[in-house]
């Protein structure tokens, strides 16, 4: 029998389906079973449920193959973020671009306690980011596209500049996913995912993950996960892996819907700005007033007013309703997470909401 093809030789849409499965042997299940155990018989490699679980490993193998590195699952994206920021020594500098408000919140908390120094930069200004990097910089934190402004960074240039001063680079790849962007191939040291979003894809899991190219760094992060217990449940990991199996199809459909909606939104009179870089399924629009934005997000039938994103259903929200959102985000900005529904149904519902918002202006 011929050897099975290796993940590195397969295209991403195939990897999502075939990686992380049991061997092709008689009576083996196609899916890794859910092992609900806190304790294992001693003397082996597992020992205790805080150290490993078969469902985690299968998810990690699949995501690692997709990103081109070695993955580690966490209880949430925020737990993964915390583990990465713990790599930064006291009084070292973290240079961070526009980022998820939870990331900025963690940085602010650490800075208030004297743990780190933070320099916030605009990722669209490559020269300014490069100037912010110096020998005190331990970590460059990037999102591209950013949340919720949808700005795009010159990742290769910024990664190279950070490495010149000896800093590690984290790229939050939640929005793009490894179907559209593989930061490790661009030179990044660490990739972060809120697996809650597109990886799991069905709005029923909270989980996070990191992927690294350096096995010794994986060992460090694994030891921190073991120590602090920031672990996902076996069922959550199993659900996230099941969602991952359809990632390529969901991204293809949702991205096509997003591109078409962005094109139509450009011509609607109440929309003053459309932010869509042509990457992924998130579109941000700006309405003239926060009241009009709120009217839109509370007046549709299909679109769901919700703060999370990346599911099969379309959701949206006015981001400045959150006190922690950056002041650079317009009051009337609405972030749309476009799902896999029929685009004509999505547009009819959205257009009706926008018309009502326009009439109230």
Key structural traits:
single chain, 361 residues, alpha/beta, Aspartate Aminotransferase, domain 2, 7-stranded mixed sheet, 12 helices, 12 strands, aminotransferase, PyrdxlP-dep_Trfase_major, transaminase activity
Task: Describe the overall structure.
Strands 1-7-6-5-4-2-3 form a seven-stranded mixed β-sheet, sandwiched between helices. Helix 7 (177-180) links the parallel strand 5 and strand 6 (190-194). The protein folds into two domains: 7-244, 3-Layer(aba) Sandwich (Aspartate Aminotransferase, domain 2), CATH 3.40.640; 248-360, Aspartate Aminotransferase, domain 1, CATH 3.90.1150.10. It is globular. The chain is 37% helix and 16% strand. It starts with 11 loop residues before the first helix and ends with a helix. Helix 1 runs antiparallel to helix 2 (54-67) and helix 3 runs parallel beside helix 4. The longest helix has 19 residues, at 247-265. The protein has helices at residues 12-18, 54-67, 77-85, 101-112, 126-132, 155-164, 177-180, 215-228, 234-244, 247-265, 290-297, 343-360, and strands at 70-74, 92-96, 116-120, 137-143, 168-172, 190-194, 208-212, 273-275, 282-286, 304-305, 315-318, 333-337. The protein has 361 residues and is an alpha/beta fold. The protein contains twelve helices and twelve strands.
């Amino acid at each position: 029998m011929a050897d099975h093809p290796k993940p590195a030789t397969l295209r991403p849409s195939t990897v999502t389906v075939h990686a992380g499965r049991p061997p092709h042997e008689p009576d083996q299940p196609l899916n890794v079973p859910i092992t609900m155990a806190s304790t294992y018989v001693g003397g082996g490699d597992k020992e205790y449920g805080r150290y490993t679980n078969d469902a985690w490993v299968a998810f990690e193998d699949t995501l690692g193959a997709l990103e081109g590195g070695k993955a580690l699952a966490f209880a949430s994206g925020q737990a993964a973020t915390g583990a990465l920021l713990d790599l930064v020594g006291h009084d070292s500098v973290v240079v961070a671009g526009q980022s998820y408000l939870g990331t900025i919140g963690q940085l602010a908390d650490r800075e208030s306690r004297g743990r780190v120094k933070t320099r916030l930069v605009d990722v669209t200004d490559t020269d300014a980011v490069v100037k912010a990097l110096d020998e005190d910089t331990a970590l460059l934190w990037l999102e591209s596209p950013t949340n919720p402004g949808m700005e795009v960074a010159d990742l290769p240039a910024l990664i190279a500049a950070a490495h010149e001063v000896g800093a590690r680079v984290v790229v939050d790849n939640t929005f793009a996913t490894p179907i559209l962007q593989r930061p490790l191939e661009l030179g990044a040291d660490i990739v972060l995912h809120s697996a809650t979003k597109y990886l799991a894809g069905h709005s029923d899991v909270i989980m996070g993950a990191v992927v690294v190219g350096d096995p010794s760094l994986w060992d460090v992060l694994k030891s921190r996960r073991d120590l602090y217990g920031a672990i996902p449940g076996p069922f959550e990991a199993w659900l996230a892996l099941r969602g991952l199996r359809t990632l390529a199809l969901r991204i293809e459909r949702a991205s096509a819907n997003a591109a078409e909606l962005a094109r139509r939104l450009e011509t609607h009179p109440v929309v003053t700005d459309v932010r869509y870089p042509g990457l992924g399924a998130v579109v941000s629009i700006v309405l003239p007033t926060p009241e009009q934005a709120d009217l839109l997000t509370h007046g549709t039938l299909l679109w769901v007013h919700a703060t999370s994103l990346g599911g099969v259903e379309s959701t949206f929200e006015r981001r400045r309703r959150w006190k922690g959102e950056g002041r650079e985000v317009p009051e009337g900005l609405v972030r749309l997470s476009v799902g896999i529904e029929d685009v004509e149904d999505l547009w009819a519902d959205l257009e009706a909401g926008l018309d009502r918002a326009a009439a109230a202006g």
